[in-house]
Design brief:
The chain has about 270 residues and is mainly beta. The protein contains three helices and 17 strands. Strands 2, 3, 6, 7, 9, 10, 11, 12 and 16 form a nine-stranded antiparallel β-sheet that branches. The protein has an eight-stranded mixed β-sheet with strand order 1-15-14-13-8-17-5-4, with no helix packed on it.
């Protein structure tokens, strides 16, 4: 069953905590604009906090200066939590192409392995108007929360701009592999897909332009070094419904477990 929602405030299991933090927005905005303006910034020597890997055809950098990211021998991506300014989080981010950004309709999706506990796996899309002003949307689990939630928000330092956020539960959380997809339509509506089911559609105008960054997040961990593992990622233009489903390589928790930080499988590749 598909739910439809206008941009009115709602709350769910604290899922807005990460996204409503001005410090989080400042961190990601600064990293994003540095990368956009100075290509190859992660190639500088002596910058251990800046990491980059190539995965699923895209270049990814660590979302937070202190968190690690790793491409594993089995082809999955792990992000490890770190003690950030506002909590224990890990993330990997990438900048979308000019061609995708120029399209009025686009989508991005990931498949993650959910352990059912913290950190909670999430995908989120972000459109920066400027280093301090952004629109963003997320889908996934927050920390130890028992539900998956869809969230969208506008942040701006301009006091004349109304800052609004909406968070809505879209399903019970469960262990195993799950695919989360967010699509942006031409009229600014957001479509949230969970395991190939359209679970929520926002009101028009929620997202005024196509996203220019995507992040894969491990949210609200209970210790540093906890992995969140993503098994696939894809993005494209046009309606999200036209995208064929991802076929996962693993089907249950017993057949696959994420690597631990410090193991050979978790080392960063150059």
């Amino acid at each position: 069953m598909v739910s439809s929602a206008a941009s009115t405030p709602a709350t769910s299991e604290g899922a807005t905590l990460m996204f409503s933090s001005p410090r989080f927005l400042r961190i990601v905005a600064t990293l994003g604009f540095v990368i956009a303006l100075i290509p190859g910034v992660f190639g500088m020597s002596g910058t251990a906090e800046q990491q980059a890997v190539s995965w699923r055809g895209f270049d990814w950098f660590n979302t937070y200066p202190s968190n690690a990211i790793s491409v594993n021998p089995d082809g999955t991506l792990s992000v490890f939590t770190a003690d950030t300014e506002f909590g224990i989080f890990g993330g990997a981010s990438h900048q979308t192409s000019p061609a995708l950004q120029a399209n009025s309709e686009a989508w991005a999706e990931t498949t993650f392995f959910d352990t059912g506990s913290a950190p909670g796996p999430q995908i989120y899309l972000i459109y920066f108007e400027s280093p301090g002003s952004a629109f963003y949307a997320s889908l996934g689990a927050f920390g130890n929360g028992g539900h998956y939630s869809a969230h969208w928000r506008r942040d701006s330092p301009d006091p004349a701009v109304a800052v609004m956020g909406t968070t809505i539960d879209v399903g019970l959380r469960s262990t195993g592999l799950h695919t989360a997809r967010i699509g942006k339509r031409a009229d600014g509506r957001l479509e949230f897909w969970l395991d190939e089911v359209l679970v929520l559609v926002s009101g028009a105008g929620a997202f005024p332009s196509t996203f220019n960054f995507v992040s894969l997040i491990g949210s609200s961990g209970v210790a540093t070094g906890q992995p969140t593992t993503f098994t696939n990622y894809a993005e494209g233009t046009g309606p999200a419904a036209s995208k064929p489903p991802i076929v996962a390589s693993f089907t249950d928790r017993q057949s696959w477990r994420p690597p631990q930080q410090g193991s050979a499988a978790s080392r960063l590749r150059p």
